[in-house]
Amino acid sequence: MISDNPKTETRIGMSLEDYMREANEKPFEMINGKQIYRIPNFALHGWILKEVFRCVDSFAVQNQLGEAFSGMTYAIHEQDNMNWITGSRDPDMAFFERNRIDEYFRDHPDWQSTPMLIVPDLAIEILSPNDTFSLMDEKVSYDLANGVKAVWLIDPNRRKAWVYTPDGDSPVVFGADGILVEETLLPNFKLELAKIWA
Question: Most exposed: 63, 100, 134, 172, by fewest CB within 10 Å?
Fold first, then answer.
């Protein structure tokens, strides 16, 4: 028997207003319709983030390449509806190229009162002991699928780093003395991992 009620797809996400209210009550990321609540980080995480942010931000500002942010939430909205949020991420650090961030600020005069409605060019995550690789893999995949050009995953405990790009079959792995570069976004920049470990 054919049903009179055709199956309707569930709409993923929530209104921007609901998202902002709920995230204010209990911060979360939203990946593939699933809310992932944020948990406090350890001191080592904060130390490494400070060192990485200091390096990237000072280089980007000095060379007028763009803006780096720590703890800046970005949200994904429906293609033709900026008031419906389908996902969100809060990477430890996000870098936006100058032309993209300037255009965003110009075209969105109310940007100060919402999450960033633009994906970063580079997302950086510092692993904490409470992070799992399966969850981080899901976050990295989500970032790359939504237009992030590169993701750096830095593990202070193992003193290793992984660099992911959309066109790479697998991440490039760096040891404790590795040097991370991103020639397209940050020409001539080098993050010497040996200098950031606490």
Answer: 134
pTM > 0.90: yes or no: yes
Summary count for the chain: helices (H), strands (E): 4, 13
- Report the C-alpha gap between 41 and 129 in whole angstroms: 9
Q: How many residues does the chain have?
A: 198
Angle at 125 between CA 122 and CA 128, to 5 degrees: 180
Distance CA 176, CA 107 (A): 42
Instruction: Assign residue 33 a region (left: φ > 0; alpha: ψ between -120 and 50; beta: otherwise).
Output: left
In the sheet where 122-126 sits, what is the strand order? 66-70, 93-97, 122-126, 150-155, 160-164, 172-174
Q: Model confidence over 134-150: pLDDT tens digits?
A: 999 999 999 999 999 99
Tens digits of residue pLDDT in 48-66: 999 999 999 999 999 999 9
As a 3-state breakdown, the chain gives helix, strand, coil percent values, each rounded to 5, of 30, 35, 35
The domain over range 14-195 is classified in CATH as 3.30.160.70? no
CA atoms within 13 A on the CB side of 130: 9
Q: Is there a contact between 90 and 27 (Cβ–Cβ < 8 Å)?
A: yes
Place of tokens 């100058």: 98
Separation between Cα atoms, residue 57 and residue 49, nearest integer Å: 12
